[in-house]
Structure formats: C-alpha cells, structure tokens
Amino acid sequence: MRFCIVGAGFSGAVMARHLAEQGHKILLIDERTHPGGNCHTGRDEKTGVMIHHYGPHIFHTADQRVWDYVRSFGTFRPYVNRVKAISKGHVYTLPVNLLTINQFFGTTMGPAEARAFIESKADRSLTEPANFEEQAMSMIGPELYRAFFYGYTRKQWGLEPAELPASILKRLPLRFNYDDNYFSHPYQGMPENGYTSVVENILATDGIELRLGTSFENIDEEFDHVFYTGPIDRYFDFRLGRLGYRTLDFERFDGEGDYQGTAVINYCDEEIPYTRISEHKHFAPWEEAKMKGTVCFREYSRLAQPQDIPYYPIRLVHEKRMLESYIDLARTTPGVSFMGRLGTYRYLDMDVTIAEALSACDRIDELLAEGQKI
Ligand code: FAD
Ligand code: UDP
User: How far apart are CA 282 and CA 50, in angstroms?
Assistant: First the structure.
C-alpha cells in the first residue's frame, strides 16, 4: 500500500518507520526544510552549540516502551532539568520544593513542618479547584502563587489564571524535600547528537521518501490513506473556525563564556516581558566546556496569528467545543487519520506523542490483519 504522512516530527516519523517496516511505501512530507518537527535541533555554525530551534526540549518518561524505542535510535545522556526562577529580585529553585519554601519565607523548616505550614496557607475549602488560580490557592496558598505563578502565567497565556484550566498547574509537582528535579519521571535524558538525529535515524529505512519544503496543500497524488500530523482545523480549511494557539518569539543573543550558569531561568515578574531565558550549551553538559561561546534565547509568548507557528493549544471552553466539531468532521471523512500535537490539538510531551503513535501502529496492524480499512 502507499501512504502519505504529513509532518516529520516524532508522530509522523514513528508511523512512517512502522509502515515502511511492514513493506508499505511512504511519502513523508513536511513544509519545513528539516525533519524533527518542533523538537528540531542543530549545531550552531559559529559556536558549535546544539540549538533547540523551537524551544528547550528535555526528554522524560515513565513509559518503558517509549524509553527503549528512542534509545534504539540514539544515545541518550543523563540530563536532569533544574529550573531556576527569579521573583522580586531573588533567585529560587522550581518546582516549588523545600528550598523554595524556606528561602521564600526565610525559614529553616523540615519536611513535616513545611507541609503543615503550606497546608495552613492553602485554601482547604477548594476541594475541587475549577481553574488555575483555585488550584494554586488550594495547593500552595496566595504568597507562593503570586510570587511564582500569577505573573508568569499571565505572560505565558495572556489570560487571568482564573480563566485557565487547573490542569495546566497540575503538570508541576510540589515537594517537601530538597529534590529540585523539574520532572518526576524515572527516565530522563538528552540525545547526545540532538533530537533531529534521532528522528533521522528513525527514518533511515527503505520505503520512506522524505520530501521537505512541501505542504500537503500542494500534493496532488492518490494514496491508500493519509496520516495527518498538521493542525486539524487547517486540514479542513478552517471551515468551522480557527483553534486558538499561543506562539513564541525567541530573541537570540550570543556571548562569551557562561551567561547565566544554568540552562533555564524563569522570570516570574510581570514587569519583565519575557517568560524565560534558556542558555543552550547547558542542555549538553558533557560538551559545554568545549564550546567557544554561548547562545541564549529570551522567550516571549503571544496569541498566534494565522502566519505564526502554533506552539501551545489554548483549549478554552469555546475551543474545546470547536475541537469536538472538528473531531466529528474527521470521523466522517474517509481516508485520513489525525495524530500528534497539532492533529489532536492537545499539549503533548514528546513521550506521549511517541506512545500514542506506537499505539496507533498497533491498531493499524490489527485492522490490516483483519482485512479492514484504516
Ligand atoms: P510537531 O513536532 O509539531 O510536528 C508536526 C510537523 O508537521 C511540523 O514539522 C510541521 O511543519 C508539519 N506540518 C504541519 N502541517 C503541515 C502541512 N499542512 N503540510 C506539511 N507539513 C505540515 N516535550 C517534552 O517531552 N519535553 C519538553 O521539554 C518539551 N518542551 C517543549 C517546549 C516548547 C516551547 C514546545 C512548544 C513544546 C515542547 N514539548 C516538549 C512538546 C514537543 O514539542 C511535542 O511533544 C512534539 O513536538 C510533538 O510532535 P508531533 O510530531 O506531534 O508534532
Ligand atoms: N508556570 C508558572 N511559573 C513558572 C513555571 C510555570 O506560572 O515559573 C505555570 C505556567 O502557567 C505554565 C504552567 O505552569 O504554563 C506549566 O508549566 P510548565 O513548565 O509545564 O510549562 P511548559 O513546559 O508547558 O512551558
């Protein structure tokens, strides 16, 4: 059979590899000039630093299948994301942990004492927090919320936290020990040669034709089925409206030596227009000493316009309703399946993207084995 896969990010690459290994012919297209999707990395010509072109990406997962899968296409070096946050002229560690709490309140509490202290600040009446702000008030209380989350979230989402879902904050842990690992997953790492090399290795098999710089809109060929990892509303020509996204502007600046001493510093105060600064050589600690200079990015968030890269799905109530209508439309449109971050309009981490693509491969095998249509 001959398939078209739209998008050469992790979703499209995993599907392309699997179908090619089953003996099918694949045309994999991407309108960008490189594979890797938003995880794309590349060496900076001037400094040699491995740049994460669409923002910092740290691999983390609890899924053994996904961890084994990615490591079969590249070496992953140990990497733990330890984020610093600046609030009102002081530097803290995130996610909120015992050091953050003791520094912020000027205390020397132990775990049990700190837990009781934060519980005394938290609003216990909010048993089922309905939004981001209520989630914060029920979890950490007003002081930590104002210092670390209120301003940053307004910058990141352009909305009052009370208008956002509680699930956004639930991504972050709260710890009553000194563990400042940003993620709680057992497997974490960074690909030694960058993410694009991992994706290229996934695609290095017979049966896949990779056509870059090519939009699906310009393809005029027949296929047995299309797997579409682009924006679902774009596939349907926005006929039910545009799903809202936040986009990011990255302002690059270069320097000598070490600019900030760590990979990521969040700027939590609203008066500072950017959300964070990332210094990319620190994402590769095994090679940073060899770099001639340093490359940093200030990151600004704003509402995406039609010509902008859609980074974060906003998913407010009316968007979820619009998404439901697009999903209904997709279900009644034969010959195409929607996958990945843009195809399903969800904020998916890389590991979830890969896990979902692997499950989709399993499902397709079952359907084809039963002689059914995809
Ligand atoms: P994408 O990577 O978006 O790939 C889709 C591809 O489809 C794109 O290359 C696009 O050009 C192409 N395309 C779309 N429409 C068309 C069309 N019509 N014709 C041709 N081509 C088309 N995840 C983590 O696990 N850890 C992190 O630290 C992390 N950090 C992130 C930081 C930022 C700033 C962002 C935005 C995301 C982050 N993620 C992180 C999430 C990660 O980027 C996604 O999980 C991953 O990129 C999803 O892969 P995908 O293949 O579904 O989509
Ligand atoms: N957040 C915040 N302050 C911070 C870090 C995160 O207010 O210093 C909020 C913000 O709303 C963000 C959410 O917590 O969107 C989830 O944080 P995460 O680091 O998971 O964001 P992402 O990786 O999606 O950029």
Answer: 10
Can you tell me the ipTM of this complex?
0.98
Task: Report the pLDDT averaged over residues 67-82.
Answer: 98
| SS3 readout for 189-236 | EEECCCHHHHHHHHHCCCCEEEEECCCHHHCCCCCCEEEECCCHHHHC
Token pair in block for residue 258: 């070490």
What's this model's pTM, rounded to 2 decimal places? 0.97
- Nearest bound ligand to CA 84? 2
Q: Which tokens in the block code for residue 127?
A: 């048993």
Point out the catalytic residue in the list 175, 234, 315, 341: 175
CATH 3.40.50.11810 fits 2-51+193-240+313-369, yes or no: no
What would the pLDDT profile of 179-210 be if each residue is shown by its tens digit? 999 999 999 999 999 999 999 999 999 999 99
127-141 confidence digits (pLDDT tens):
899 999 999 999 999
Cβ 128 vs Cβ 167: under 8 Å: no
Domain ranges of the chain: 2-51+193-240+313-369, 83-170
Intra-chain end-to-end CA distance of the chain, in Å: 12
pLDDT class for 240, splitting at 50, 70, 90?
very high
Which of 14, 33, 57 is the pocket-test mutation for ligand 1 (most atoms within 8 Å of CB)?
A: 57
Give the pLDDT score at 353: 98
- 140: closest CA among 165, 158, 159, 114? 114
pLDDT at 374: 87
The ligand that comes nearest to the alpha carbon of residue 189 is 1
Active site residue 276: yes
The DSSP output letter for 282 is G
CA of 105 relative to ligand 1 center, distance in Å: 39
Q: Is 115 a catalytic residue?
A: no
| Ligand 2 centre distance from Cα of residue 153 (Å) | 7
Is the confidence at residue 7, as pLDDT, over 90? yes
